[in-house]
Write a structure and sequence with these properties.
With 366 residues, the protein is an alpha+beta fold. The N and C termini lie far apart (64 Å). The structure holds iron/sulfur cluster (2 copies) and FE2/S2 (inorganic) cluster. FE2/S2 (inorganic) cluster binds next to loops.
Length: 366
């Protein structure tokens, strides 16, 4: 097949930048990396890119294809070539370019090092010769352990683009890999450190890291787990943590989000007073519900019961998110193996279909 590529060439020494077009004759099973090899071997030996394993293990070949980070050895080019599309290949984002598709990974490794990515054994286990970790305990950090340090998530991180000091998705996912490890003795210290400025709460929740990670690590979910664990352990000084905490309190007490109290609870009374002028401008639009008496949802008992259930099951930290991942995994597995029964086929399973009450049905039919 004929594969066209437009490649952004760049040399940091000269500052020269140019978009160059190539076409190679490649076998139908060729990956993007195979096509780059063909360009380098047969047309332009000066093209620079990284590779090693060629099988999605080493994490060397991260780059952008049409603006999104990919592992070049994972992307098959057949469909692209069939569609007559000529993709634009460029270096990953959020990292300095050295040459062509090669980026300087030093900032990536510096952040990895800063989360102390190694086990700090608990003192109460120091004398034990064997430390068995159960499958259930390992499940909590299964996804985080799959990371191959490719940097594709960092390339697409919106928060890092505006704040290069943000720890970022890869380092935080690595942090969760140790916070969730049953053998680690520095959980609280880690949560304290990751909750500081440029940490957990500076993530904008854009989910681009989940979308681009080629190994299914889902770094944003790892960050959510860190946030949940931090709050479970009372580490909630950051404004982001206070904001999340108030959401839970509000839902538990009234089954409703009480926006009027959100600002003082999150940012403090002084900041809230400064916002009064802005709040007054929203008042005529009905956007500022009166705080007293608070609006209470009709079925607030359900919301309170849900809160109590989560607490009783001990899934108010990272375990709750792991539980959700399993449920979603079961759903998607079922979608791929149609014919099997889904766990959601059971009458008492959740999420339940919405069924109108008898009263609502009557109202609709009359
Ligand atoms: S979800 Fe957070 S960590 Fe992930 S890319 Fe967006 S801002 Fe970055
Ligand atoms: S989390 Fe995924 S995208 Fe990010 S470095 Fe690890 S493997 Fe690569
Ligand atoms: S060459 Fe190793 S992951 Fe692509």
């Amino acid at each position: 097949m004929q594969v066209g590529l437009k490649i952004w060439r760049y040399d940091s020494k000269t500052g020269e930048r140019a978009l160059k077009e190539y076409e190679v004759d490649a076998p139908e099973e060729a990956t993007l990396l195979d096509c780059l090899d063909l360009v380098k071997d047969r047309q332009d030996g000066s093209l620079a890119y990284r590779k090693s394993c060629r099988m999605m293990i080493c994490g060397s070949c991260g780059m952008r294809m049409d603006g999104g980070a990919v592992l070049a050895c994972k992307v098959r080019m057949y469909d692209v070539a069939e569609a007559g599309h000529v993709p634009v290949i460029s270096a990953m984002g959020n990292l300095p370019i050295v040459k062509d598709l090669v980026v300087d990974m030093a900032p990536f490794w510096q952040k990895m090092r800063s989360v102390e990515p190694y086990l700090q054994p608990r003192y109460d286990q120091a004398e034990e010769r064997e430390n068995i970790v159960t499958t259930e305990q390992m499940d909590v950090i299964h996804k985080e352990s799959l990371c191959i340090n490719c940097g594709c998530c960092v390339s697409e991180c919106n928060s890092m683009e505006s704040d290069p000091d943000f720890l970022g998705p890869a380092a935080l996912a690595k942090g969760m890999r140790f916070v969730g490890d049953a053998r680690d003795g520095a959980r609280i210290e880690r949560l304290e450190r990751y909750s500081e400025e440029h940490g957990i709460w500076d993530c904008t929740r854009c989910y681009f890291c989940n979308e681009r990670c080629p190994k299914g690590v889902d770094p944003r979910d790892a960050i959510a787990k860190l946030g949940a664990e931090a709050m479970k352990n009372g580490i909630d000084r950051d404004m982001g943590a206070k904001h999340a905490k108030w959401f839970v309190t509000s839902a538990k007490t009234t089954g409703w989000l009480r926006e009027t109290e959100l600002v003082p609870k999150t940012q403090g009374v002084v900041k809230a007073i400064k916002e009064i002028k802005f709040a007054m401008s929203l008042l005529p639009k009905g956007k500022v519900p009166p705080p007293f008496p608070p609006h209470v949802a009709a079925e607030v008992d359900e919301s309170r019961a849900l809160y109590d259930l989560v607490k009783a099951q001990g899934v108010d930290g990272a375990a709750g998110i792991v539980q959700g991942e399993k449920a979603l995994g079961a759903l998607s597995h079922h979608a791929e193996t149609s014919g099997d029964r889904s766990p959601y086929d059971e009458p008492d399973s959740a999420p339940r279909p919405y069924l109108p009450s008898e009263k609502e049905s009557e109202e609709v039919t009359t």
